[in-house]
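Propose amino acids for all 413 sites.
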């Protein structure tokens, strides 16, 4: 009597009993020394990489081994290629191990690969292929221009990854919380993180970064660096010359301008007047040679961009040297006699120059001329003449008195 196969018996029994009987037969077969079985190993690979799918056999006796893809298309039949896809290669076929290799893996290759062993009862195991898609370096999108005093909205985008990447905004070593959104694109995910930050002039050029983390990168990360571009109105400052200016000197002014964008045109003008004919303008530099007092006035430097206008002014005051001559009476000294006599004037020359610390002040200087000695000599001469006159007059008066005394005596005789 021929034995009844389990498959025939299962067809004769109702479905619930057939399933129970099939399970019982498999258990009994596997506990016997000649039980055949197959095992499969799950595989994880990066997109674009190479995956090796292995089927391990137990007690293989030459039965048929079939490997199928997730769409249940037969790839290999007992080691023979069945599907025309050159990316699949049979690299090993032994009684213990069957291994195929898949190159240039894509997310569409993901799924369960069936290792089937056809014996009295079909055995199969599924090797699950998982494909990781690491993110590329994220991009930064700016919704609108960053203007001084306003806000800027920045969006960091990772368009494709599997599983979804994790994004993080950083500034000066500190994380900036962002609003995260995620979109399922079927096999992959796109992720974005948006931040809104207030900006001032000082924030122009500030460094930010968006970092993308992913299991496929391990401890590494993809980083996109970004520098803030803050627009603001210009500022203008005229750098004045050092010291005071006199007639004949040269004037050179520099107009220091900042702004974003930097103003291209700088305008020089003179308030309530036209620029001198000798004025030379070269961008931010303004020069006048051989100054005169006719150049006095207020000069203006102006600059503008799309976000505002600014100006600064400089008042030019040209000075000249002043020389003044005055007559000053001499100062009595202890060596002069206390007699009354006409004073002899002494000429002193006084020069007046401008004080560098105070351009409006005039400083008096005396020349060192020995007029005091000359005055003393003249006074001594005058004093000697006076003394001689006094003695002469006194002697004359005495002689006249003696003559008058003698006249009565002669008359008496």
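Proposal:
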């Amino acid at each position: 009597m021929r034995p009844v196969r389990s498959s025939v018996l299962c067809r004769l029994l109702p479905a619930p009993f057939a399933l129970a009987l099939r399970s019982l037969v498999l258990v009994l077969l596997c506990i016997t020394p000649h039980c055949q079985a197959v095992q499969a190993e799950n595989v994880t690979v990066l997109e674009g990489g190479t995956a090796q799918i292995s089927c391990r056999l137990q007690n293989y006796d030459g039965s048929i081994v079939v490997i199928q893809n997730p769409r249940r298309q037969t790839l290999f039949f007992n080691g023979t290629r069945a599907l025309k896809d050159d990316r699949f290669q049979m690299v090993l076929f032994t009684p213990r191990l069957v291994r195929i290799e898949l190159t240039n893996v894509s997310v569409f290759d993901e799924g369960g690969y069936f290792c089937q062993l056809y014996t009295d009862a079909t055995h199969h195991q599924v090797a699950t292929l998982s494909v990781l898609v690491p993110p590329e370096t994220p991009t930064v999108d700016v919704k609108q221009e960053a203007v001084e005093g306003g806000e800027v909205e920045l969006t960091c985008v990772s368009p494709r990854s599997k599983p979804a990447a994790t994004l993080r905004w950083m500034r000066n070593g500190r994380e900036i919380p962002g609003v995260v959104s995620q979109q399922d694109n079927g096999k992959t995910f796109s992720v974005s993180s948006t931040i809104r930050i207030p900006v001032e002039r000082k924030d122009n050029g500030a460094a930010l970064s968006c970092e993308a983390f992913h299991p496929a990168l391990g401890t590494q990360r993809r980083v996109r660096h970004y520098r803030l571009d803050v627009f603001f109105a210009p500022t203008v400052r005229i750098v004045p010359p050092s010291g005071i200016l006199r007639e004949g000197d040269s004037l050179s002014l520099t107009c220091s301008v900042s702004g974003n964008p930097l103003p291209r045109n700088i305008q020089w003008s003179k308030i309530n007047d036209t620029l001198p004919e000798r004025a030379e303008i070269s961008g931010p530099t303004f020069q006048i040679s051989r100054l005169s007092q006719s150049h006095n006035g207020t000069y203006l430097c102006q600059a503008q961009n799309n976000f505002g206008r600014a100006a600064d002014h400089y008042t030019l005051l040209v000075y000249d040297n002043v020389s003044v001559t005055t007559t000053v009476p001499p100062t009595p000294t202890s060596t002069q006699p206390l007699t009354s006599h006409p004073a002899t004037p002494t000429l002193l020359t006084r020069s007046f120059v401008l004080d560098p610390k105070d351009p409006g002040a005039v400083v008096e200087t005396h020349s060192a001329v020995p007029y005091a000695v000359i005055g003393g000599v003249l006074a001594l001469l005058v004093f000697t003449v006076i003394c001689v006159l006094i003695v002469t007059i006194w002697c004359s008066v005495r002689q006249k008195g003696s003559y008058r005394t003698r006249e009565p005596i002669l008359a008496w005789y």
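The domain at 233-316 is CATH 2.60.40.10 (Immunoglobulin-like). Residues 371-412 form the longest helix (42 residues).
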